[in-house]
Specification:
459 residues; alpha/beta; binds 4'-deoxy-4'-aminopyridoxal-5'-phosphate; 43% helix; Aspartate Aminotransferase, domain 1
Length: 459
């Protein structure tokens, strides 16, 4: 069925009927969408026959790489056996039981309980409801406010978009909802002034303490953050930040929540981002790498303290038709097992991750308008800057990033611009040779980019 139409026909029908997420519809339709028809390993193929290196693993999710033959087999078998049943009516099924058991094995110690959703946004919304319910059950009904961060990303639902700190999302639809406040992000390059990164990490954590005191500790339910801010531009906090955040949350009796939707399932070389930064949250949210995008599924992990309290509260009035969907659960199970048993996560930690980080810094550190070259495991970024010596960013943050991103696209390499941060998160199965190839193309694109900056009089 797929190959019955021409690219033009697909584009016309797409423009006529399909609204794309986070897209300026009219400008896309003038141009026409790129039609992706198949994928294998780290490569995508479009309807024009182009082979494109996916330096973003889709939307940071195809951890295991494209084109696995075993996962569709698992899906087929599960569909034939039990395509669907819910887990509301005092029922369960083997697929969800096996997945939960495996997740308790790969999760950091103390996380033995999971609640299923269909996406990262649903995981975040579920977490918001759990956090508020937790304090209800504890008899502290005023503890309702969640603290998020400016430039954090927690999804597109009303709860997730509110908790996130993307002002361009807040502006569309009267967000945030009540009971959600924000503090500044721990981005040393912009906010660190003359502090060392370590000093700045403590100063940034202090912003959270200040906010708790401003709102009143008796009203604050939780602090929520991504271990590394992903969509905000791969902001890697200083090493001092997360342990200090944990200390502050403990001091004021506030739940600590990590949004591991991007960092989870091996992206950083550890199973979860919290293990890189040495902190232990009470709850963490996941999706993406849980199934490597082969099925839509998310999961919220709870420590014993939270799980026990929610259970003491009796009914938790929350859940989705597809919570723990059998096909999604079976595929997620096979995916997580393969990430572990095939040594894919270990390889990111010990081999390809360190290699990428070394090469990434060597290749991009040499450009005149690139600075803050950073990353861990297979998540990395750099920032396009006007003047390295003074840490001066370009005006109209994001304009230059798009220019740069478009040059990568033209050269069949997908890296993403988040403002003027250029970010990358390829499938975890990328080999060292493929890393070399990716960086060689990227370096050529950067030469072209810096040439264009000069030609356009932007520097
Ligand atoms: N949290 C984080 C940290 C994310 O990066 C994302 C998606 N990029 C989400 C939540 C939302 O996930 P989804 O798009 O699956 O709803």
């Amino acid at each position: 069925m797929q190959n019955q139409r021409t690219t033009t026909e697909w584009r016309e029908l797409d423009a006529a009927h399909h609204l794309h997420p986070f897209t300026d519809t009219n400008s896309l339709n003038e141009q026409g969408a790129r039609v992706i028809t198949k994928a294998d390993g780290i490569y995508l193929y479009d309807s024009e026959g182009n082979k494109i290196l996916d330096g973003m693993a889709g939307l940071w999710c195809v951890n295991i790489g494209y084109g696995r033959k075993d996962l569709p087999e698992v899906a087929k078998r599960q569909m034939e056996q039990l395509a669907y049943y819910n887990t509301f009516f005092k029922t369960t099924h083997p697929a969800v039981v096996e997945l939960s058991h495996l997740l308790a094995e790969v999760a950091p110690q103390g996380f033995k309980h999971v609640f299923y959703t269909n996406s990262g946004s649903e995981s975040v919304d579920t977490m918001i409801r759990m956090v508020r319910r937790y304090w209800d059950v504890k008899g502290k009904k005023d503890k309702k406010t969640l603290i998020g961060r400016w430039n954090g990303y927690h999804g597109s639902t009303i709860g997730g978009a509110s908790l996130g700190g993307m002002t361009y999302m807040h502006e569309q639809g009267d967000l945030p909802i009540p009971g959600i406040v924000h503090v500044e992000q721990p981005w040393w390059y912009k906010h660190g002034k003359d502090m060392t990164p370590e000093e700045f990490g403590l100063a940034a954590a202090k912003w959270v303490e200040d906010k708790i005191l401003e709102v009143g500790a008796d009203k604050v339910a939780a602090f929520v953050g991504e271990p590394i801010q992903g969509a905000g531009g791969v902001i890697v906090p200083p090493s001092t930040y997360w342990p200090e955040i944990q200390r502050i949350c403990q001091k004021y009796d506030i739940l600590l929540v990590a949004d591991e939707v991007i960092c989870g399932f091996g992206r950083t070389g550890e199973w979860f981002g919290q293990q890189v930064f040495g902190f232990t949250p009470d709850i963490f949210t996941t999706a993406k790498g849980l199934s490597s995008g082969y099925q839509p599924i998310g999961a919220v992990f709870l420590n014993d303290k939270v799980a026990t309290t929610l259970a003491e509260g009796g009914d938790f009035n929350h859940g989705f038709t597809y919570s723990g969907h059998p096909v999604a659960a079976a595929v997620a199970h096979a995916n997580v097992k393969a990430l572990r048993d095939e040594g894919i996560v270990d390889r990111v930690k010990n081999d390809t991750g360190p290699y990428m980080q070394k090469r990434w810094r060597e290749v991009f550190g040499q450009f005149e308008h690139v600075d803050d070259v950073r990353g861990v495991g297979l998540i990395q970024a750099f920032t396009l800057v006007k003047n390295k010596a003074t840490r001066e960013l370009f005006p109209n943050f994001g304009e230059i990033g798009t220019l740069c991103r478009d040059i990568f696209f033209k050269n069949n390499l997908i890296m993403r611009a988040c403002g003027d941060h250029i970010v990358s998160a390829p499938p975890l199965v990328i080999s060292k040779e493929e890393i070399d190839q990716m960086l060689e193309t990227a370096a050529k694109c950067m030469v072209e980019f810096e040439k264009q900056l000069k030609e356009r009089g932007l520097v």
